[in-house]
Design brief:
Elements: E1 13-16, E2 20-23, E3 28-35, E4 41-51, H1 57-68, E5 75-79, E6 86-88, E7 104-110, H2 120-123, H3 140-147, E8 152-154
Parallel strand pairs: 3-7, 4-8
Antiparallel strand pairs: 1-2, 3-4, 5-6, 5-7
């Protein structure tokens, strides 16, 4: 019956300051996209992942690359929270260090074969100041969740 509890919900114990430990009750759900071979954000190819605020960017990259089946050494991490995407290049920083918030959009940009990278910050807005195909709208999740067979929810261990 219902009063016997539900399934276990794994939670991390994290360091809070220098001396305190606490159970992290609220995780940070993120939507991770990747770019296609032309450098455009592939809005149909996304995963949703719950992370701890102490998760390092390199762990996020590892989980995303594993799920998208792409080489970790050939991606850049882009933050799509603000009006202008921001490259996050310190993979040792945590989500908390980078001020990543719940329901934020993260893009893993694939390196081109010639060794160059998509410039998502320059491609974000077109000449008329309107968003281009690289624009990741907050409504994208709602549309994709209902219509996309590739949409996958995975936990903070990177397992479906």
């Amino acid at each position: 019956s219902w009063y016997r509890g539900g399934p276990e919900i794994p939670r991390k114990v994290i360091k809070d300051g220098e001396t305190f430990l606490r159970v992290e009750v609220y995780t940070i759900p993120l939507t991770i996209y990747s770019t296609d071979d032309k450098g455009n954000v592939d809005k149909k190819k996304l995963i949703e992942v719950d992370f701890s605020k102490v998760t390092k960017l390199k762990e996020l990259v590892s989980i995303g690359c594993n799920r998208f089946k792409i080489d970790e050494n050939k991606v850049q991490v882009w933050n799509f929270l603000t009006d202008l995407p921001e490259l996050m290049d310190n993979l040792e920083s945590t989500l908390d260090d980078e001020s990543i918030v719940r329901r934020q959009k993260i893009v893993l940009a694939l390196q081109f074969e010639d060794g160059t990278w998509p410039q998502l910050d320059q491609m974000y807005y077109g000449k008329q100041g309107k968003p281009t195909q690289n624009y990741v709208d907050s409504n994208d999740n709602n549309n994709n969740e209902n219509n996309n067979k590739n949409n996958n929810k995975i936990n903070n261990n990177g397992k479906p």
